Amino acid sequence: MPKSVARNNFSPLIWGTFGAIGISLIFYLVQVLGMQSWSAPIYFMAGKWYFVLPLILGFAVQTGLFKAIHLKSKQGGGTVAASGGVSTAAMIACCLHNFVILLPVLGISAAAVFFSTYQNYVFIFSILFVIGGVIYMRRKYQKIHAGGEINI
């Protein structure tokens, strides 16, 4: 069986798991770049687990729902297009304060101050977006599962 066919047969649960691992790695690497340390991001995530974990799980659920919608649309002949970009962007936005050294060079030092000062609020706002994304994807899944047309 060709690799592309085998890859497309993974279940939504596996896709969700890979989504969680992928977003965790992206989050970790952004933190490593910003903090310039391999261990500091681990302490940060341990200290802010109540913000980080919902973002990771929400992205995983969105990824799994996306795959489920994709599989259903293939069965029904529909098409699907969506992205977990909002979740990824929200997690990365939470880390921007770590780039204090680089941001003045880019001319956006105010962003570092903003994200550093209001980090918890940015996390809460990001979690709300992730919840909204999960609700949106769930409704689309229910619509296609019921036999309706899908437009994402």
- Compute the separation of the termini in Å: 30 Å
Helix content: over 70%
What portion of residues belong to β-strands?
under 5%
Structural class: mainly alpha
Overall number of domains:
1
> Whole-number average pLDDT?
77
Rounded to an integer in angstroms, the radius of gyration calculated over CA atoms is 18 Å
The 3D shape can be described as elongated
User: Stretches where pLDDT falls below 50 for ≥5 residues?
Assistant: none
Counted beta strands: 0
How do the SSEs run, as a string of H and E?
A: HHHHHHHH
DSSP helix count?
8
Give the biggest beta sheet: none
Give me the oligomer status. Answer: single chain
Summarize this structure as a short list of keywords or feature phrases.
single chain, mainly alpha, 152 residues, 8 helices
Could you explain the architecture of this structure?
- The chain is mostly helical and 152 residues long.
- The protein has one domain (3-145).
- The chain contains eight helices and no strands.
- α2 (12-35) runs parallel beside α5, α4 packs parallel to α8 (119-145) and α5 (85-95) packs antiparallel against α8.
- The mean pLDDT is 77.
